[in-house]
Recover the amino acids of this structure.
């Protein structure tokens, strides 16, 4: 008969940023008897997953599981909802189109979905007709998150949250403390290796050597625990992702908006993250871009600049050390993908949470899925550079086999093959490519069906949009209501 | 050819794969294509696949076919899963359901809690926690709900007479404009330069020309295998069964089981598939361990009920073509590959190939090499995943009562399967993928059902008080029992909807 494995006695998390603290909450919630200790490491401003306060819709589900209340984020961490991303100037100068979340979650519906997005380009200059309920709500500035399980015309709308990163981290720290997660201010004086390729203990100033069964390295780009491990190898992504640096603009006045804008500029993509506590622009810059072009794209001198050495750990988990966030993978942090990948790593660890004894097969399964996950995130970012204007302006990238296949299939059949562990559903990926102006030829199936199904889908969407617009208040009114209630 | 498309599709073979291909291509790509099917009355059809998977419902619906008409034409009954006997060891049985076992709690899959309670002697058989299993065992049926309730936790398929399916699809396809050509193909004509197939030459001298050829010629694989010489990857070292002796019998009991029975035998296994008017039986065996005469004798002895016909022998070999789409020839069904019907995958594999062909179909008739590669990638992935799952049924056993079982128990399995089995044995976890067939619940059903339990399970399953977990599991079992009690018997459900029933033969 099978026996339950002995639970983890102690887990040490290196890094007290929003990734490390959430990882600590996740482990403590899953295994309350485990002693979880977060050790603060030096602040790493180049760790994008730590400092950018937004992710993708997956995070909402993780938050839910971990008891992190969305309304609390709205009231105490400046959170607001992003229903769609507006892609400006990717398809052509002056062109803009929305890519909404949650376009279609059932992979089997993919080809039908891709057809519904229609063949051919949308009119340049206009956004074209909104392609989903989420996009229509975003355009109208109306939304409130549906509550509970009650049927709502807004229930099929998916969204990402953005928040004030320091306030969010404070909120997480409060939750962690309430759960009994312990904290040590650091620093880590030394790391003692074990004889199995992992770590036996960390020496903390003022606390001596502390052993643990499992170590999570969320210390940012320094990867303080992982770096010294003998088996670590780095997979270079610089051929696949062109940006070599990130310029961050000074925060400007707060604004409420259900969309963020990501514009393609001569200096690289420029993402304007809207927020209730300020608006921040991030500019991802390839090599050889002049300072003047950076300033022009950002609309001012950058407040911060960081180098990007794109790549990932060949194995996220070696011995008893799991690297998470920027310690595991570094890449241009487009539209929430940096924290999204960190959160999906935490979720994967929860799926495969080991006992005191770590089984090598479980570790291999983690690493298999981590590699799929990270590579899919890379390919999702890289697929932006397939936009016509990006192709015109930047040197070609080395597309992975999977990405080359996906782009080719989309271009010739409007088909997005299933990508295991992808950050978005296939339908959302199709929506993204469409918004970017990547041309997809109508599939044989769609040609044979004629225009009837597309018209019926459009009519159905129109009714859904009308109902949703009716049910949703102006977003600023809803936020105001929430803040008064709180 | 007025009003018809310009891309000429030629389907070779009038069996199940041939008529499924012709129907789907004509129905879904009609305006772009013309479809010609060549069949010969001199060549019998195998008619495999009396048992199906839930995907067949999608096929029928997509063609716009009414379920009742389909069931009436093929003498179909409903199917909730497969009841396996004597696989892990003689005397044991389990149902592999079209459904799940329990639900995740606190992020930990149900079966870890079950393992924890079972170790304490506090849990019933894991099948008690699956609505599909409980309904199947009680011989009851009702269609699942389309919400998030307990009644939505299962699916269903059909058990039907495969020899009736192809002729019925023919009647469906001909009015769609499919041209049927009766004749025996004697030669595959190819373009001297490109090597593409240009036409099929018939015994009477006629030539049927086409742009795209679909090879549904069965094991003969006339175009893909013979003319184009595509290699065959042989899997008989892992799946030694290469024969079946099929024999129908009359019903002996009033109720119709809403499931297929699969009973392990000394040289393989036998099926028992209840249709509306008869029971399909067959012994799938390895000719290297059992002679054809012995197998026929064994199925005569084992099958219950009045014999309707003498055993009919089928010969096959497990494996697949290295490339199922080569030049302008697409293999569908047995011409492309074969896996024994242990998990009712034959029609699924046919349907899968047709679906991918339609998704990747060249808009202008000119085939792009990248679409061929994509088709072959997908087909290989599907075959290889199912192959591993089938091998598991043989390998996860303690049977040592026959040379056949000694062979499969001790053989070296594919690395891909060995890794999955080790992960399960050491941690109780299932390797995850979202494409292809057979996910967590299927692997759990077979592992557990065949007594291949993990040595260790998730530490979190031991956190809650076992008495409380037991109470929750009892309450789930009670809710399942209530749902089952509210379902009609399978036969009563069918007779209450008589439009599904064929006239008695």
């Amino acid at each position: 008969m099978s026996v339950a494995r002995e639970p983890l006695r102690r887990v040490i998390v290196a890094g007290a940023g929003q990734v490390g603290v959430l990882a600590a909450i996740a482990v403590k919630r899953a295994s309350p008897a485990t002693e979880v200790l977060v050790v603060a490491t030096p602040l790493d401003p180049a760790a994008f997953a730590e400092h950018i306060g937004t992710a993708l819709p997956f995070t909402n589900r993780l938050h839910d599981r971990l008891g992190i209340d969305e309304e609390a984020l709205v009231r105490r961490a400046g959170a607001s909802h992003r229903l769609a991303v507006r892609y400006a100037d990717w398809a052509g100068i002056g062109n803009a189109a929305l890519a909404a979340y949650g376009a279609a979650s059932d992979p089997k519906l993919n080809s039908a979905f891709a057809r519904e997005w229609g063949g051919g380009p949308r009119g340049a200059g206009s956004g074209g007709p909104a392609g989903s309920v989420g996009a229509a709500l975003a355009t109208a500035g109306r939304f409130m998150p549906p509550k509970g399980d009650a049927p709502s015309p807004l229930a099929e709308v998916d969204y990402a949250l953005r928040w004030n990163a320091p306030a969010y981290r404070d909120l997480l720290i409060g939750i962690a403390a309430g759960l009994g997660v312990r904290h040590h201010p650091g620093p880590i004086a030394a790391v003692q290796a074990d004889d199995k390729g992992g770590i036996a203990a960390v020496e903390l100033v003022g606390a001596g050597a502390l052993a643990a069964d499992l170590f999570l390295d969320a210390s940012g780009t320094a990867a303080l625990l992982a770096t010294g491990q003998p088996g670590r190898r780095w997979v270079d992504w610089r051929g696949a992702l062109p940006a070599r640096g990130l310029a961050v603009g000074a925060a400007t006045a707060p604004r409420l908006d259900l969309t963020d804008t990501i514009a393609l500029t001569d200096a690289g993509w420029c993402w304007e993250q809207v927020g209730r506590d300020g608006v921040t622009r991030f500019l991802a810059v390839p090599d050889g871009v002049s300072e003047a072009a950076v300033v022009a794209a950002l609309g001012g001198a950058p407040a911060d600049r960081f180098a990007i050495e794109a790549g990932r750990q060949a194995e996220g988990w070696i011995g008893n050390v799991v690297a998470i966030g920027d310690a595991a993978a570094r890449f241009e942090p487009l539209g929430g993908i940096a924290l999204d990948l960190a959160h999906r790593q935490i979720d994967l660890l929860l799926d495969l949470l080991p006992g005191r004894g770590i089984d090598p097969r479980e570790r291999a399964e983690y690493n298999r899925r981590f590699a799929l996950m990270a590579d899919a995130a890379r390919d999702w970012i890289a697929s932006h550079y397939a936009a016509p204007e990006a192709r015109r302006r930047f040197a070609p990238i080395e597309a992975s086999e999977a990405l080359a296949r996906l782009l080719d299939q989309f271009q010739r059949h409007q088909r997005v093959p299933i990508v295991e562990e992808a950050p978005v559903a296939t339908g959302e990926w199709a929506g993204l490519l469409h918004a970017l102006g990547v041309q997809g030829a109508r599939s044989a199936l769609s040609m044979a069906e004629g225009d009837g199904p597309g018209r019926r889908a459009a009519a159905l969407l129109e009714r859904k949009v009308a109902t949703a617009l009716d049910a949703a208040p102006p977003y600023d009114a809803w936020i105001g209501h929430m803040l008064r209630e709180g | 050819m007025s009003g018809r498309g310009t891309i000429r599709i030629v389907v070779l073979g009038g069996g199940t794969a041939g008529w499924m291909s012709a129907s789907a291509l004509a129905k879904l790509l009609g305006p772009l294509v013309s479809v010609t099917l060549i069949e010969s009355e001199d060549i019998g059809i195998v008619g495999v696949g009396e048992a199906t998977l839930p995907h067949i419902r999608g096929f029928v619906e997509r063609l716009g076919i009414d379920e009742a008409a389909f069931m009436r034409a093929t003498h179909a009954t409903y199917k909730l899963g497969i009841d396996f006997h004597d696989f892990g060891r003689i005397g044991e049985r389990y149902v592999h359901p079209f459904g799940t076992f329990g639900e995740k709690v606190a992020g930990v899959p149900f079966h870890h809690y079950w393992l924890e309670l079972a170790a304490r002697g506090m849990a019933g058989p894991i099948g008690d926690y699956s609505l599909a299993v409980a309904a199947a065992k009680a011989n009851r049926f009702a269609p699942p709900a389309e919400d998030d309730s307990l009644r939505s936790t299962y699916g269903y398929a059909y058990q039907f007479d495969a020899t009736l399916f192809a002729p019925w699809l023919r009647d469906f396809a001909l009015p769609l404009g499919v041209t049927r050509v009766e004749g025996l193909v004697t030669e595959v004509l190819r373009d001297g330069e490109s090597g593409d197939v240009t036409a099929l030459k018939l015994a009477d001298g006629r030539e049927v020309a086409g742009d795209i050829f679909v090879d549904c010629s069965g094991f003969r694989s006339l175009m893909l295998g013979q003319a184009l010489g595509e290699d065959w990857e042989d899997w008989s070292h892992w799946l030694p069964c290469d024969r079946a002796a099929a024999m129908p019998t009359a019903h002996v009991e009033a109720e119709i089981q809403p499931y297929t029975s699969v009973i392990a035998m000394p040289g393989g296994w036998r099926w028992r598939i209840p249709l509306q008017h008869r029971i399909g039986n067959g012994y799938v065996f390895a000719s290297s361990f059992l002679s054809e005469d012995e197998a026929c004798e064994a199925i005569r002895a084992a099958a219950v009920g009045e014999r309707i016909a003498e055993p009919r022998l089928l010969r096959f070999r497990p494996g697949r073509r290295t490339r199922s789409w080569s030049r302008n020839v697409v293999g569908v069904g047995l011409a492309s590959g074969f896996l024994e019907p242990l998990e009712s995958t034959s029609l699924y594999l046919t349907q899968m190939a047709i679906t991918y062909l339609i998704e990747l179909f060249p808009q202008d008739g000119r085939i792009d090499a990248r679409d061929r590669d994509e088709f072959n990638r997908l087909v290989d992935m599907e075959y290889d995943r199912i192959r591993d799952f089938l091998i598991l049924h043989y390998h996860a056993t303690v049977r040592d009562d026959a040379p056949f079982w000694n062979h499969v128990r001790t053989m070296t399995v594919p690395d891909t399967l060995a890794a999955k089995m080790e992960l399960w044995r050491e941690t109780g976890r299932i390797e995850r993928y979202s494409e292809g067939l057979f996910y967590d619940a299927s692997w759990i059903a077979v592992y557990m059902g065949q007594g291949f339990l993990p040595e260790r399970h998730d530490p979190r399953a031991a956190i809650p008080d076992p008495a409380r977990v037991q109470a929750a599991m009892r309450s789930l079992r009670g809710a399942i029992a209530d749902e089952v009690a509210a379902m009609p018997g399978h036969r009563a459900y069918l007779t209450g909807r008589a439009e599904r029933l064929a006239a008695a033969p």
Remarks:
- The radius of gyration of chain B is 23 Å.
- Residues 383 and 420 of chain B are 17 Å apart (CA to CA).
